């Protein structure tokens, strides 16, 4: 049997551990079985699907609210008829506020 002899490091820092390559280090996590991994994936997929449905519903509701708000604003606007002669006399700033229908 071979025994590992611990020597004093060359740099003199005995309190430091000698570093190993990542491939030689042990993993600390517990490995799961294939079936358990598949089950976790399925559960994650189900959760993602539900979250996506909820976000889609929320987006649709927001769009509906926006549409209703715009329709209400259009209904609430007061329209006045302006004659062509009056339009010709208006200044540029006043013309910008006029909407043709």
Fill in the keyword field for this structure.
101 residues, elongated, 3 helices, 53% helix, mainly alpha
Plain-language structure description:
- The protein contains 3 helices and no strands.
- It has 101 residues and is mainly α.
Blueprint of the fold:
Layout: H1 34-76, H2 84-89, H3 92-96
Number of strands: 0
Straight-line N-to-C gap: 99 Å
Order of helices and strands: HHH
Query: How much helix, percentage-wise, in residues?
Result: 40-55%
Protein structure class: mainly alpha
Rounded mean pLDDT score: 85
Q: Using the alpha-carbon principal axes, give the shape.
A: elongated
Q: Low-confidence spans: pLDDT under 50, at least 5 residues?
A: none
Strand content: under 5%
How many distinct helices? 3
Q: Could you give a short account of the major beta sheet?
A: none
Radius of gyration: 37 Å
Can you summarize this structure?
With 101 residues, the chain is mainly alpha-helical. The protein is built from three helices and no strands.
